Amino acid sequence: MKKIILFGMFVIISTVLFSQTKNNHSRRTTNAKAILPAAYRTEAYVPLLKGKRIAIFANNTATIKSTHLVDTLLKLGVNIVKAFGPEHGFRGNMDDGKRIDDYVDSATNIPVISLFGKKRKPTAEDLNDVDMMLIDIQDVGTRFYTFISSVQEFMEAAFENDKPLIILDRPNPNGFYVDGPVLDTAFHSFVGMQPIPTVYGMTIGEYATMLAGEKWLSQKANEKYESYLNTKNIESHFLVIKCGDYNHNSKYILPIKPSPNLPDMACVYWYASNCLFEGTVLSEGRGTDHPFCIIGHPLLPNTMYSFTPTSRFGATSPKQKDKVCYGWNLFKSNEEVLQEINGRLQLKYLLEAYKLFPDKENFFNKGRSGKISDYGINRLAGSDQLVKQIIDGKTEDEIRASWQPKLDEFKQIRKKYLLYPDFD
Prior knowledge:
seven-stranded mixed sheet; 14 strands; alpha/beta; 11 helices; Rossmann fold; three-stranded antiparallel sheet
């Protein structure tokens, strides 16, 4: 296999500025080259795919401009024998959290195997007729966004079955900071599989390289990866194709929504902070035009911003459906949202909501046992520490201080696997 160095020279640092249209999906550059997702760099990877039977893990975000990557590869003569789809499906048109069965993609007649249905990981049987595996998917850089969990299990299947794996990297729209509590592995779940903070500041390619390097994969996959390293020819087994003109100071504007409930960049930016509301009885804005920017509940003061969640694509049964809720509308321009977030996970609205909520006993979604250790928010926060701190009336500064030791440890691990210049 043609050798492409995994840890090549860093891309040239350049300042990339984007303007925003009303739908937040258009972008232009002012005085620098446009950031190029790795998929655009076909000359770097298509020759490696030719003559092989390819299995791809992707969704609707795997595009080159407005064309799906699969369509481009088929036109270039690449033999794609099957696709694997994550949450929301291969074409990104399934409802949030909906179980998805296997099917045949109507546009290409390629079999699609769901990794968000009967299973989460390709089996040896799935890969019998596969020579090489390929990943191209847009992440948003938060621990509980399940695409990184599917990427991990796809990687494990590749290594366990001795299938070469290529990752086409994409910029992280939240890759310009690292913050939040680090997951306690006792609270491991599909929305949090590794001891990383809520916002981890890495691209999919960097994150995957960390998974392998830190031996965070399955035991068999770790052993296989070690054997690949010993051959001193790792690129023939595991290869990341890098983005062009990207660095961790970049504020990358997504050209297409990564999932139904992240329709614009304001939602993408607020998602890291306000997804925690999914662990409460409050609406996190699903069923509105701007999920994760709009937060509220019927029991909050009626002098606050009012909205009514409704059934719609991506949120057919949102919390507080058809009820008038009161709370906050945080939707603003990209620049205003970035200024408010200021490179930090924001807890102020969660803390304020708890203070204002009259029925504090039922503010959090409880597990079957009713014990704090089983509260639903713990899977999102990564431990039961945050809910205890909120109940105890801790300030945001006190809560943030409790994160710092583990956060500092993670930052040192992260630095070992960066493929692009960092933000500090």
